[in-house]
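Olfactory receptor family 5 structure dump, as promised
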Amino acid sequence: SFCDVCYSSSVSPKMLADFLSEQKKIAYNLCVVQMFCFGAFAAVECVMLSVMAYDRYVAICNPLLYTVTMSRRVCIQLVATAYTAGFMDITIFTYCTIRLSFCNSNIINHFFCDFPPLLDLSTSDTTTSEIALTVSCSCLVGSSVITVLLSYSYIVTTILRMKSATGRCKAFSTCASHLTTVAIFYGALFFMYFQPSSSYSRDTDKVASVFYAVVIPMLNPLI
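structure tokens r here:
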């Protein structure tokens, strides 16, 4: 919930202020800060979802060892790893972006400072930056998705082997809220950043961004 509030708050206040203002402006330094904060907490959220999937795996597949495996110390280490990985990943993103030149248009075709719109404005060769961003993002998202898929493959196998119908229903209900969050988050993420360039639309991206940056963080604590 803390992570959801942080990365939603990095976008929502400025977005609402722009809706009420005729002059929709943001200073370059503030744009970089917004880009970093939103990206950092979104990356942390991505890793945290995989950590939560592992937590569900231990709870269902090894319930007798849960208190030992997921001790307070281990939980703190996992959270620290999520924040470290998320902030390191977004530091690479930010460095690759701020080293570019922006000498022509300063009109961002978006409602907040995100990486793709800023790359579109650059007058520099963005090939190296785009490759670095793609590799970095793919590693973070890919490892998180693989962890989620592996965890739930073991969870489903374990649930199907349960003889008690009550036990199966309880296990599925335990995972339902997390699976809903995972589906919404990763679905929006892949739609925004991993769709083919031939079908990419900036206007569609804006609509998805509202859902991704505002709606999802509001729904996650409720889910």
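The two ends are 11 Å apart (CA to CA).
lmk if u need the other ones
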